[in-house]
């Protein structure tokens, strides 16, 4: 089973590694809120990767149709608007206080939000499932050993994705002290990149692509 796990690990790492909106969020949150917040952002994406890896590992006959359905106008529009909302939320003025919430409660909500937003953003990205479908089909990695083989493959995908996010958040945190006084510029740069991704997604719909 180890070769199957290793293949899943390589696939999970290679799909997570290209820089996209989740990578930008991970870097920004690591620099501004700390390594744990950045890693949990990646963990949300890794969870979605594991889910789509499971579909691909099971060799579902309807995988291509599912990808096409999730690549519909409504899903792309939702993902694009969500990215634009994240861009706005990154630079909006922060409230001075949070009512009666304790610092621990606010931190817990922030960590959960970091995980949940990345999970939702990855699940609504049709390119994720199409990437897994293409790689698994191209390498002939559809699992025929049953649920055990699928579980091992998915565990490898999840581990590979988590490894990338651990490396990215850990590496980014090394520069935290250097960039600590540039938090506002980090917010502005992150917001700009997220807005570009969001506008590109919405623009592809308006352009009929």
TrEMBL record:
Membrane topology label: Multi-pass membrane protein
UniProt keyword annotation of Membrane present: yes
Protein name, per record: Lysine exporter protein (LYSE/YGGA)
InterPro entries: LeuE-type
Main location: membrane
Keywords: Cell membrane, Membrane, Transmembrane, Transmembrane helix
GO cellular component: plasma membrane
Pfam families according to UniProt: LysE
Transmembrane regions listed in the UniProt entry: 6-27, 39-61, 73-91, 112-137, 149-168, 188-207
UniProt GO MF annotations: amino acid transmembrane transporter activity
Subcellular location: Cell membrane
PANTHER family in alphabetical order: ARGININE EXPORTER PROTEIN ARGO (PTHR30086), ARGININE EXPORTER PROTEIN ARGO-RELATED (PTHR30086:SF20)
